[in-house]
Automatic annotation (TrEMBL):
Gene3D superfamilies: Aldolase class I. It holds the Pfam family NMO. It comes from the Bacteria. InterPro entries: Aldolase_TIM (IPR013785), NMO (IPR004136). SUPFAM superfamilies: Inosine monophosphate dehydrogenase (IMPDH) (SSF51412). One of its GO terms (molecular function) is nitronate monooxygenase activity. Belongs to the nitronate monooxygenase family. NMO class I subfamily. PANTHER family: NITRONATE MONOOXYGENASE-RELATED (PTHR42747). This is Probable nitronate monooxygenase. It comes from Thermomonospora cellulosilytica. Its cofactor is FMN.
Length: 342
């Protein structure tokens, strides 16, 4: 196993990491703003090809030298063609109302090999992985380049399965967006972040980053006291001017109509937490467990809804602390997350 060359904390003045948020939400502007404020910003490499990711890296490097890149690990689902066909047909009236057609239920590996090659050829400070753990060979290749490696886990068992890493992102069930589990199934144990930090700390000696519904300085102080070296927050940054979230998405976070969150497969075929809206309520129970196939089916609808400003058909990913998300610059949001014991 390769030697750990430096600590993730060496890259931050403050123990706050901006979660990678795919789909254009967590882009270069947000990553750079958080890093310049003393935290660690992340680019979301999911749903992008290698060329687009390289362009975003170039953009964020113009503003800061400290940042991370997140990748989705491919695999995990055996799609049922009949179930996908039925779900696509179910969404046709919804799509027609928006003036689009449902997408094709494509699989694919999210340009995995090309993005790995690009990040090894032009190393970045940190690479994190979600939806699984890459091979030991991939992990060690990054570490040999001086890139710190972070793997997302949602259970102590997943933590024990990681062969090597510089940190584990320990994601509790409160987190907004996709559950970062290896298997992608809802029947896995759903640990809250505080419980999970404690359990994983006893399962491994790899440093831990806590994630999941962390919305205040008191939240951050608590997970640090339980043994985490840093806290990762995503929802807290969604309403910042640097966030790439569409205006209707930002408004929904403060709208009393969207007061609750739930975990659904409606938008992507993979469990993810978001604000409960009409699309989630009507279609979630019928969505097959098929990722990224369902993601591609619903993508044209979600894009059209964003253009129209229709939050009832958008994937409004948000964690349980979403009502505390403030319409402030990212640097001020980070300041509010600094650990303050109650």
């Amino acid at each position: 196993m390769g030697e750990v060359r430096r600590d993730l904390r060496d890259l931050m003045r403050h123990p706050i990491i901006a979660a990678p948020m795919a789909g254009g939400v967590g882009g270069p502007a947000l990553a750079a703003a958080v890093s310049r404020a003393g935290g660690l910003g992340f680019l979301a490499g999911g749903y992008q090809d290698a060329a687009r990711l390289r362009a975003e890296i170039t953009e964020v490097r113009a503003a800061t030298g400290t940042f991370g890149v997140n990748l989705f690990v491919p695999g995990g689902f055996a799609a049922d063609p009949a179930a996908l066909k039925a779900y696509r047909e179910r969404l046709v009236p919804e799509a027609e109302r928006l003036g689009v057609e449902p997408g094709d239920p494509e699989g694919g590996d999210d340009d995995w090999d090309a993005k790995i090659a690009a990040l090894l050829a032009d190393p970045v400070p940190v690479v994190s992985f979600t939806f699984g753990c890459p091979s030991r060979e991939v992990i060690e290749a990054f570490r040999e380049k001086g890139t710190l490696v972070v793997v997302t886990v949602t259970t102590p068992e997943e933590a024990r399965a990681v062969p090597a890493a510089d940190a584990l992102c320990v994601q509790g069930s409160e987190a907004g967006g996709h559950r970062g589990s290896f298997a992608g199934e809802e029947d896995l144990p759903a640990y809250g972040v505080r419980e999970l930090v404690t359990a994983v700390r006893h399962a491994t000696d790899i440093p831990l980053v806590a994630a999941g519904g962390l919305a205040t300085g008191a939240d951050v102080a608590e997970v640090l006291a339980r043994g985490a070296i840093a806290a990762q927050a995503g929802t807290a940054f969604l309403r910042t001017p640097e966030s790439g979230a569409p205006p209707a998405y930002k408004a929904a976070l403060a709208d009393a109509r969207f007061a609750t969150t739930a975990i659904t497969r409606a938008f992507t075929g993979r469990p993810a937490r978001g604000l409960v809206n009409r699309f989630m309520s009507e279609h979630g129970p019928h969505a097959p467990a098929a990722y990224p196939h369902v993601h591609h089916i619903t993508a044209p609808l979600r894009r059209a809804a964003a253009r129209r400003g229709d939050p009832d058909v958008m994937a409004l990913w948000a964690g349980k602390g979403h009502r505390l998300a403030a319409e402030l610059p990212a640097a001020q949001v980070l300041e509010g997350l600094l650990p303050r014991p109650q």
